[in-house]
């Protein structure tokens, strides 16, 4: 009975009606990213691999042995950051390009959702490189590796929440896309992708405490590299940030969606 009531929900029925469109949009977003390139989707694997090799050579010179298993440390952070940055930017641009909504009714949330899902598919596929690097570098996995699924899930929903929020705001304030580009650059340097937190003066380390993306990256590193349990506070903090952005994103989208056709 309860399952039947859920399936009778208007939102669920609407989602099921347009699920094939969502599938096609996700497939299209993955294909478009690598179209006309000679190696195509192989760049999903080559890009993080080459990036890790180059930066490991460069930064290992400066950091020495201060970071345990630096290539895996670097790749854990880089993959999570690339998904967040790429997913939020793709969602931000998605509604501006959805000219079809001027002619027929399509649920507006489908476009930012498809953009984030498309990036998540790429992210999941690129984890194969991380798995190979874990094996090659001899990381000793523990049962804590199973808990990596929690930061992966939080990362997806946090990106979706931020993407939904930005997708609506940018329809009325186009400058936001440029500000977001600058902000994500700052976020990259404030998420300790290339360096350990210990190199930052202690009085500035509070930045990492308040940075939810760093908390996600730290949870992934603890599960994969160090075989440690992460602090439950990290989960609750990132979950709170995620719920905040999802709520804001959904409210803004449903309040202003009827005005989108005037700005496309």
UniProtKB/TrEMBL annotation:
InterPro entries recorded: ABC2_TM, ABC2_TM_bact-type, ABC_2_transport
GO biological process: lipopolysaccharide transport
Assigned keywords, A-Z: Cell inner membrane, Cell membrane, Membrane, Transmembrane, Transmembrane helix, Transport
GO cellular component: ATP-binding cassette (ABC) transporter complex
Name under which the protein is recorded: ABC exporter, permease component
GO molecular-function terms, A-Z: ABC-type transporter activity
Subcellular location: Cell inner membrane
Organism: Methanobrevibacter arboriphilus JCM 13429 = DSM 1125
């Amino acid at each position: 009975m309860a399952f039947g009531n859920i399936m009778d929900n208007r939102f669920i029925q609407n989602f099921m009606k347009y699920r094939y469109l969502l599938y096609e949009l996700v497939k299209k977003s993955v294909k478009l990213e690598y179209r006309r390139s000679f190696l195509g989707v192989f760049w999903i694997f080559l890009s993080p691999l080459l990036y890790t090799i180059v930066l490991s050579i460069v930064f290992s010179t400066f950091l020495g042995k201060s970071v345990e298993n630096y290539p895996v440390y670097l790749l854990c952070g880089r993959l999570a950051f690339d998904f967040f940055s790429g997913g939020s930017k793709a969602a931000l641009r998605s509604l501006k390009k959805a000219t079809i909504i001027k002619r027929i009714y399509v649920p507006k949330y489908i476009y930012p959702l498809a953009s984030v899902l498309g990036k998540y598919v790429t992210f999941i596929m690129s984890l194969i490189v991380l798995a190979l690097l874990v094996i090659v570098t001899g990381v000793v996995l523990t049962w804590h590796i199973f808990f990596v699924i929690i930061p992966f899930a939080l990362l997806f929903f946090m990106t979706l929440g931020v993407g939904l929020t930005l997708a609506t705001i940018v329809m009325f304030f186009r400058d936001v896309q440029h500000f977001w580009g600058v902000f994500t650059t700052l976020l990259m340097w404030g998420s300790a992708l290339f360096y350990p937190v210990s190199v930052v003066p202690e009085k500035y380390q509070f930045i990492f405490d308040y940075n939810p993306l760093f908390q996600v990256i730290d949870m992934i590193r603890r599960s994969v590299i160090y075989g440690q349990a992460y602090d439950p506070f990290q989960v609750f903090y990132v979950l709170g940030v995620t719920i905040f952005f999802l709520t804001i994103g959904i409210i803004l989208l449903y309040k202003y969606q009827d005005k989108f056709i005037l700005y496309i």
